[in-house]
Amino acid sequence: MKADDDVYIRLNPQAMSLEPLPRVDLYYSFVVPCNSQNPYSEYMSGMGYLISWDLVEWISTSNIPKLDLFGPEDKLVGKWLTNGNKAKNRISNKSAMYDYPSSNGKCSHELIPHTIVVHRLKRWDQ
């Protein structure tokens, strides 16, 4: 899992949410932009996303990532996986992964019991 330094990850709920999911070709987080519900049309948020080990290995050996290295990492990873016809199992857990309520984040909502990741836990001046 890749995660920003301003997130809090609740590992037990995350592990439970992953339990029924496929172990290969998996791309898991929540799809951006916030109002989108289709994980196959965009990319997963850079706050924290998980890719299965086979995708990690593919990224390390494929020429697709090597030829496209500039830009926001979350957008790049999504683009690489799409261009490589990878990540057939894209899971967006939007309600459980969000920006902290008072952060003015575009993807924020009130804290909820089944939270997995909360983002924007520090301000730029911190």
From TrEMBL:
It comes from the Eukaryota. GO terms for molecular function: hexosyltransferase activity. Its EC number is 2.4.1.-. It is a single-pass type II membrane protein. GO terms for cellular component: Golgi membrane. Its cofactor is Mn(2+). It is found in: Golgi apparatus membrane. InterPro entries: Glyco_trans_31. Its main location: Golgi. It is an enzyme of class 2 (transferase). Pathway: Protein modification; protein glycosylation. Keywords: Glycosyltransferase, Golgi apparatus, Manganese, Membrane, Signal-anchor, Transferase, Transmembrane, Transmembrane helix. Belongs to the glycosyltransferase 31 family. This is Hexosyltransferase. It comes from Cannabis sativa.
